[in-house]
Design goal:
By secondary structure, this protein is α/β, with parallel strands linked by helices. It is built from seven helices and 13 strands.
Amino acid sequence: MVVDVSALSVGTGFPIVRYLVERITQQNGLANLHVLVAHDPKLDADIKPVSNDTPGYVHGFTGKSTLHDFASAAKLWLPQLARGRTDALDRLYDFVRPHDTCPILPFPASDPRSSDMLAEEYLTEFESTWSVDTRNIVYADEGDPLDLYRTILKLDDLRKPVFQEVGGSLLVLSPGGSKVMALGVLMAALERDLPVAYLEAIGYDLDPSVSDANASSELLHIWLEGDAYRQPRPTLHSAVVPTR
């Protein structure tokens, strides 16, 4: 099975992949699942999603957020920052109501200044609304979903023993912008059953002056399930192979 998420929103692509992963698990891994995405950071930044007004959890990705045992858990929100999304992320912040926020910035990135420009755009949120300590900013490789995947798992592992006596720890993820980095969020959410808070897009705006993306796009491939892994399924150390 092959899923190309290049043209799918998070609210559509994430549930499809989760459904297929669960079907394969029920069949004891007797099928292969490949996820593809066209990688063009500049085009991703130029596409402006038109979000609806109601934040919520992506279907199939509520995680432990609705369990009574986690009602008093220390919530850490990990929003993936993208240009022109301040209003959407402010609404998500009000929905999640986290105790701490660790924004995700792309670095390394195709544009070396993209992290600086995003930090400048979200300066008000950093200093006031979200109260972000600069030491809590998460940097992840823009072109490698495994980098963000491993970082999220490491944060989850570090927080569990710290908060286990005071209600536990709960990571809430909010992907946006780069679809490659969003795949890292997807893999971490699948492995640890983490909630994914999101404002679904009801449309997209693209400036007519933006040039054809086909010339600069790369196709990134993740072998998510199947023959590459022993059974029972180990952690998602998936191989990522960029192809032209």
